[in-house]
């Protein structure tokens, strides 16, 4: 999908790994609430700040997944988790702290390979993590979020 240039459009569900990336951002304390429905999310490497605005079903984020690929990017998911609108899993969150997401994505090139690495490296029960991801994605689907530029 091309850039969502200044128009409102329904966002697709993200790749499954983005749920864990969002939970990791929350666990790391990289989500800064600026007010109701507004937050900043610091990237895992600390070199980027994503701006998120949420108003009902309308959302905005300047991350690449949202802007260029048309799916609910991890900063939006992280903001919804920080607001309590999406579930978190404290035990899983603890195991997702300090993961260098961008570095791993560039190293492994495929999200499934990154997941395999993380599950092994962090001793994460894959079945439990997948159930959690399913629950978050189910709630995201019910939200029917739409990209809406500020």
Task: Report on this structure.
- The chain is α+β, with helices and mostly antiparallel strands and 150 residues long.
- The protein has one domain.
- Helices cover 46% and strands 17% of the residues.
- Strands 1-6-5-4-3-2 form a six-stranded mixed β-sheet, covered by helices on one side.
- α1 packs across α3.
- The chain is globular.
- InterPro entries: UCP014422 (IPR016618).
Keywords:
7 helices; UCP014422; six-stranded mixed sheet; single chain; about 150 residues
Topology:
Blueprint: E1 9-10, H1 17-27, E2 31-35, E3 38-42, E4 49-55, E5 58-61, H2 64-69, H3 74-82, H4 90-95, H5 101-108, H6 111-121, H7 126-143, E6 146-147
Parallel strand pairs: 5-6
Antiparallel strand pairs: 1-6, 2-3, 3-4, 4-5
Helix pairs in contact: 1-3
Low-pLDDT runs of 5+ residues are none
Query: Please, what is the average pLDDT?
Result: 94
The residue fraction in helices comes out at 40-55%
Helix-strand pattern, N to C?
Answer: EHEEEEHHHHHHE
Rg calc: 14 Å
Oligomer description: single chain
Count the strands?
6
What's the end-to-end separation, in Å? 20 Å
Decide which structural class fits the backbone: alpha+beta
Spatially, the strands of the biggest sheet line up as: 1-6-5-4-3-2
Question: How many strands, what sense, and barrel or not for the largest sheet?
Answer: 6 strands, mixed
DSSP strand (E) fraction?
15-25%
